[in-house]
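Morning. Coffee machine broken again, so started the prediction first thing and wrote up yesterday's gels while waiting. Chain of 237 residues, entered below exactly as on the submission form.
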Amino acid sequence: MNPWRLEQHAELASTSDEAVRRAKAGEPAGLAVLALRQTAGRGSRGRAWTAPEGNLNLSVLLRPARPAAEAGLFSLISGLAVVEALEGLGASSLSLKWPNDILCAGAKLAGILIDASPNGAGLDWLVLGIGINLKSSPEIPGRRTTALATQGLDISAQAATWAVLAGLERWVGATGAAIRAAWLAKAHPLGTKLEITYGGQRRSGSFAGLSTYGELLLQCEDRIETINTGEVLLADR
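Came back before lunch.
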């Protein structure tokens, strides 16, 4: 049985805003909201997400039976679902960058935004916002961006949506250990030099893996810091 209820809209301000509104109103898990055009998309750290027609703008509502502390694992789950979906559709040279970027040959191809509401020690609801540059790539100051069309791939938003939803179905019930291992296999190698900006501070170090809850572990000289938010740059690239 298909666990997803896909709603397609010609245009929305924000698929995540719509999914969050529905979550707060009691919508059951499994809602997927696709907009062919998005006029007020949200990116990470309060940025706008440019979403011209032809790209993927998708948000998915979950009500996972997991501790609230594991909300961060859903960035990893979403990244895995996107990479596996696009590889299955013919894309190559894909990799993951913590916490929410999908890269193609080192350039940003897709991003993920997580909205969550705790319920005591658990999660009431969680919305995964997924944006993929299928046809065109927006300009982001200081960042290289790309689209799958540059690989000669003509993938519709609908085809990408169903492939991503199939990937999510595979991963949402997986153990934390399995999620972390699969994510690490698709990400920059251990030891990669990183620069992280968060809380008005900048940290430099090397990638030391992931915590139990999907946080980034940064090796800084003689200590390992646990990072749960921030802007990450691969210093080697």
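The chain has two domains: 5-186, 193-234. Going to sketch it on the whiteboard this afternoon.
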